[in-house]
Amino acid sequence: MNLDELQTRWDEYDRKLDSLVQLNRKLLSAGPLARARSALRRQRLWAILGTIMNALVIPLVGLFIGLNHGSPKYLVPAIAVDLYFIAALVVHARQVHLLSDLDYTGPVAAIQRRIVTLVRLRLRFAQWITMTVVLMWVPFSIVVAKAFLDVDLYAVAPGWLLVNAAAGLCVLAILARFARRVARGQVAPPSQGVLRGIAGENLSAAAAFLDGLSELEQEGSQPR
Is the whole model's pTM more than 0.85, yes or no? Predict the structure, then answer.
């Protein structure tokens, strides 16, 4: 066997080896990608449920507004509650949209960018919920008490309303300070874990799977 024949056979073996490596890489990537897809599907299901729940509450509050349109003491808190649920509906619908058109056959980096967008959206939504729920508790209580119990909290428990409103403002100040610390990166590791939980367990799991898959793709793209 001369040198040319040896080189030809060696090139053939190298092509076969490369094909086997590529096949093994695809088989290895199938597992993480499937797990990431499963986690994102669960996250999409929760977003759909959130959208449905808010879509059901909004018209009910709208009905309450219609029945009490002549009473400002009920009209104002009811409008605030309705706007609150409308905002929540928009955020959940946005999550459904972002999770509905993912291309799992495309580059992993594209899915990772979508997850980053979702995590940011969820963190901002969680921050908004946390900052506003302490203030919304009073109007929400007024609406629920009137709608389901026909109780006028203004007359029955004015002191309770004032105390809760004051407590809400105090808590809001504390949360605003914490939010500034988060923005500056001055948050201890345990709090960072809480923030990751707020971002969504399913999104965190999908991101972890895709990180491993991305490393695999990068290894495959390196020159041999």
Answer: no
